[in-house]
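#struct-pred

JT: dropping the chains for the assembly here, can someone run the whole complex?
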Amino acid sequence: MEAIAGWWDDYFWASIVVFKVFIASLLFMVLFGLIGAMAKLSNNRIAQKLASAYTIVFRGTPEILVILLLYFGSAIALTSIAQVFNPDIKFLDVPPFWAGTFAISVIVGSYATETFRGAFLGVDPGHVEAARALGLSDFQSFIHVRIPEMWRIALPPFGNHMLSLVKDTALISIIGLNETLFVAKQATSFTGKPFVMYILVGCIYLAFSTVITLTVMGFEKFGNRHLKEAL
Amino acid sequence: MNETKPFIQMQNVEKYYGQFQALKAINLEVNRGEKIVICGPSGSGKSTLIRCINRLEEHDGGKIIIDGTELTDQIKDINAVRREVGMVFQSFNLFPHMTILKNLMLAQGLVRKTPKAEARKVAMQYLERVKIPEQADKYPVQLSGGQQQRVAIARALCMKPKVMLFDEPTSALDPEMINEVLDVMTDLAKEGMTMICVTHEMGFARSVADRVIFMDQGEIVETATPKDFFENPDSDRLKLFMKQILTH
Amino acid sequence: MTESVALIFDSVLKMLVGLGMTLQLLIISSGLGLILAVILLLMRISGKWYLNLPAQIYIYIFRGTPILVQIFIIYYGLPQFEFIRDSIFWPILREGYGCAIVALFLNSGAYTSEILRGGVLAVDQGLLEAASALGMSKPQRFLYILTPIATRISLPAYSNEFISMLKSTSLASTITVADMTGIGRTIVAQTFAPYEIFLSLAIIYMILTFFIQRSFGWIENRLSRYTKKLGIS
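RK: done, full complex below.
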């Protein structure tokens, strides 16, 4: 146990990094998911095909590969461009934080596309019709009827997507992001106690997962309070 | 209120679903204060007809004119028409995630821009009209089918429409709840509301309708006063339909 | 540009050598994972708390932590202990290959058992009641009614999990296993050509995914024959 002493600081800040990645990637993931779902649900053939390609590509490719490709690929491109201006530059990269965040957002966003699409299709069309019959504009019925019903349908699978984001953060350690797994690797080479170091990483991620799961359960309760039957 | 022009005019209206023709050369005029009942076998086009009136379905041929405004592709503000045309659906379609009160107030605020306090007053007024003011803060799932449908009628009435469309309002209800809804509709008729009802409730048609229309296979086959319709049906198709529904 | 094409061609051939390894990892882990999943499922639906609770805890831990961390714990962490090094499992746990399979199947078992449980819960209770009324015993109901129907219902979700497994096998490359990704990364380190190599590799995985989806689709169709209304002939 004493092995960990002295490393608490590093693990703490590394956990903050995990949190930051989660928040950033969550925003992008929702964005990509909504855009993808809209594209698939639209009447535009090109948009539909592009969105299909998006989901096929990123659901069929290993996450680690996407991270490596995005990071090294962008690094090579940036380095070449930078060397035009300053030949002394050996290596210029997109910071692993952003390369990794973007990569996992794009990947989980492709799953979110399907989730959001299914959720929009799951809204009772009769309710939308009632809104139209009352004279609500398309925009008004979208905001007041479709979105409220849609997020409740999407919530359980969306919770899983959030869990995927958190867990995929560990993969970003491979490109040098200073999160908990990365710290554990360093700590292991110093202390020679790999087991306890990696178990600690597991515990930290388990804590994140638990918080997310509890939060989703809370939202489900809140979202479905209108369904409590009369006693 | 006497208007020389009919409130609703449908001239040679046609509607296709792909190759299938749902409405064939429909000609219909509805005056202010008239109560029209439309009946007929399934697939006859009755629902399609009234859904074209508030443009939930778009007609493919002919003209539809509501209170002087023609419904076309270029119509600038369909919602201005929909404000004046209330609709009650077979499956109620109350917004599940809102309380009864919110269901009644939502469109008032968004479409008529009614201030909240006023909207609430109107909502409670109509809830009392349909005899369930105590349900105001409940959610739709907590109400019976009959209660939900009465709320749906109140919701449409809150918009103070000039005509009410009813699409088989009692078909999804258990038998013991049908009357509470028909009572509300009958009261509404007595107060002079212009109404077009698609329904199988022949008793209601007899007592409330000014005209009963029989549709079959997309056409209006016969139109008559309730007395003539039920006691002296003209066409063979109507005679057959009467036999089918009145033997129970 | 021609050097790019030659490089791609060359690298793809080298990476396809790793295909065998990738498929081994996938099939063995999924196979063992399925067995584990059934055991966990039986524990979960047994109704007995001393079986249900440990299964729930196991699933919770393996679904709540990243698979990469699980791999590292087994590969780097376990050898720390003497009793592991002395045990009969050591030959397996000493190699990256063995550790990868252990980590993957332990993980797969957790996810798959939840999928199977979802399928079991979705079976119409009325069908089981009818079976009871006919006098069938519990094991008989489980075997002849519950299992076939639950399997058919679980299939779409399981196919997703299987594809997820395929993608997880690429993580074995982090512990020296020479699967397709492992070989790919080595080539990139030598040639500094990430675009060509990783893009080709991604395409290979996508093709594999396509075949897997097709196969599962075919199986789903066969199993669903009785759910479709017969056409009028």
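JT: nice. Chain B has nine helices and ten strands. The CA atoms of residues 18 and 202 of chain B lie 33 Å apart.
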